[in-house]
Design a protein that fits this description.
There is one protein chain. The protein has about 210 residues and is an alpha/beta fold. It has 2 domains: about 140 residues, Rossmann fold (3-Layer(aba) Sandwich), CATH 3.40.50; about 70 residues. The protein is about 40% helix and about 15% strand. It has a 6-stranded parallel β-sheet with strand order 5-4-1-6-7-8, with helices on both faces. The longest helix is centred in the middle third of the chain and has 15 residues. It starts with 6 loop residues before the first strand and ends in a 12-residue tail after the last strand.
């Protein structure tokens, strides 16, 4: 892993945007209304995965009874109503500012739907920090491999780029993009899961600027 980076590619949900608690509350509402056992933060961080459809199956939803597309729509309806309750992860803005001061380019690569991603980035007054904000064209959160390849094509120095995320999917995307990755256990995955397969895991966002030293 290189000791200096010139481009930071950020995941959004769970990494910069603190929304795991809201996702747990909403998934528990969907489960409770169907008489299924609810989850806690520990089990959520141990089971949540991409594509999200597989997570829904894991926690007990029967797609023969209720289609995944309906569940996803119900989830997003609640998420849309409540997303403005969420805040940035502690220290996120300070880290973004520190990187910008050092002339490090930054972009977002997210499994969040594009228009909603743009809206939230603007609401948080972060647009000035990012060269690109890449999100999906739907809300089924199938993954972001293709988006990653598109973003990489726009980077002048991909060998000096690093992806920062909070999930094993981020590590898979970075591997497919052939760039470095660091993971932070501040969102949707536990530290133990992130540490599998030799992934580099930091303690907090505040350690990111040190990657440039």
């Amino acid at each position: 892993m290189t000791s200096r980076y010139r481009y930071i590619i950020w995941d959004w949900n769970g990494t910069l945007f603190d929304d795991a608690w809201l996702c747990i509350e909403i998934i528990n509402d969907l489960l409770a209304r169907r008489g299924l056992p609810m989850v806690d933060s520990v089990s959520y961080e141990e089971q949540f995965t991409f594509p999200v459809k597989e997570y829904y199956r894991t926690v007990g939803f029967d797609f023969d009874t209720i289609p995944f597309e309906q569940l996803a729509a119900e989830f997003m309806a609640q998420y849309d109503r409540r997303r403005f309750e969420c805040r940035l992860q502690p220290g996120a803005r300070q880290v973004l500012d520190a990187l910008a001061t050092r002339k490090v380019k930054q972009s977002i690569l997210s499994a969040y739907e594009q228009s909603r991603l743009d809206e939230m980035v603007a609401f948080m007054n972060l647009r000035e920090f990012f060269t690109h904000t890449f999100g999906l064209n739907d809300f089924y959160s199938a993954g972001k491999l293709d988006l990653g390849r598109r973003l990489l094509a726009d980077i002048d120095y991909p060998a000096e780029a690093v992806l920062v995320g909070d999930s094993l999917h981020d590590a898979e995307v970075a591997e497919a993009m052939e760039i470095d990755c660091v993971l932070i256990p501040c969102g949707h995955y536990s530290r133990a899961r992130l540490s599998t397969n030799g992934n580099r895991v930091l303690d907090s966002l505040q350690q990111i600027p040190k990657l440039l030293d």
